[in-house]
Amino acid sequence: MTRKKILVTGGAGFIGGNFVQYMVNKYPQFDIYNLDLLTYAGDLTKHRDIESKGNYFFVKGDIADRDIIMSLFEKEKFDYVAHFAAESHVDRSINEPEIFVRTNVLGTQVLLDAAKKIGVTKFVHVSTDEVYGELDFDPTTFFTEESPLQPNSPYSASKASSDFMVRSYHETFGLPVNITRCSNNYGPFHFPEKLIPLTISRVLNDEKVPVYGVGKNVRDWLHVLDHCAAIDLVLHEGVNGEVYNVGGHNERTNLDVVKTIISTLGKSEELIEFVTDRLGHDKRYAIDPTKLERLGWKPTYTFETGIAQTIQWYLDNKWWWEKIISGDYPNYFKKQYSLLKF
């Protein structure tokens, strides 16, 4: 029996990296290929526990490099593609939007061409709730799969563009695709430029924690392992051409998140430092995941259990994140750490 091959793009990043580990351990009968360019947020040390397993393979490559991608697909004949690779940090997109267009739009289009050429069984494009724009603070309103796309940052605009490209390859060429749009993820191996790991690392070091504006922006928090289970389900059971929202039912203001971490670590809220708000900062995101729940998925983590587990993971794995913020890491992050917020 021929072994199925699954390509995971961006498998050295946060969500893609967790998905690689999830799939390698859950499906020993599948060969899992991790394709990543290893830019500043790409890290392979997170895979030290699976790198010797016979069903795990790493390939270094740029998804926007057509020659590399076409050669790889023609050689390996992948059955499934789970596409996580993306520039994803909103602050960086404001300063360097061109990078986001190249990776998120052109890179996705190159992958779609390769997938179409070899005839994959399924192409799952992992997107974000940020493509919907923002909601007001009315707790009864949610993003659904039918909500219009109204991106407000160069990052979310590039993701919306890639969503449209994926949809077009299904409508025009019949490529079997799904698009998933998730709320804010958190959990192990979250890069320290993002809100939760940034807060944990700074609180542990008794450093000021920057909070945009007055901290009232609301996000729906989704544990990364719940997200991995959702992508796994869509990969195997998703109806071709459909979009599925993935939300955690865990809305919190940024200030509440920071205060929860500070309280859990037994530190003072005097560490909170309100800073000038981000340009185009969306007020609220909230996902209605009913459609995915009908497919058979439900989140297993509440925010309370998930944030406690995440804080403990950062306490137990200082070997991973301390090297990043100390400067034993690519120069870009060493120089920018004091400037990036979340």
From TrEMBL:
Entry-linked Gene3D superfamilies: NAD(P)-binding Rossmann-like Domain, UDP-galactose 4-epimerase, domain 1
Enzyme class: lyase
A Gene Ontology molecular function term of the record: dTDP-glucose 4,6-dehydratase activity
Keyword NAD: yes
Presence of keyword Zinc: no
Record-listed E.C. numbers: 4.2.1.46
InterPro entries according to UniProt: dTDP_Gluc_deHydtase, NAD(P)-bd_dom, NAD(P)-bd_dom_sf
Any one GO BP annotation for this protein: nucleotide-sugar metabolic process
Keyword vocabulary terms for this entry: Lyase, NAD
Residue ranges constituting the NAD(P)-binding domain according to the UniProt record: 7-310
CDD domains linked to this entry: dTDP_GD_SDR_e (cd05246)
Cofactor(s) this protein cannot do without: NAD(+)
Catalytic activity line of the entry: dTDP-alpha-D-glucose = dTDP-4-dehydro-6-deoxy-alpha-D-glucose + H2O
Family label: Belongs to the NAD(P)-dependent epimerase/dehydratase family. dTDP-glucose dehydratase subfamily.
Protein name listed in UniProt: dTDP-glucose 4,6-dehydratase
Organism phylogeny: Bacteria, Bacillati, Bacillota, Bacilli, Bacillales
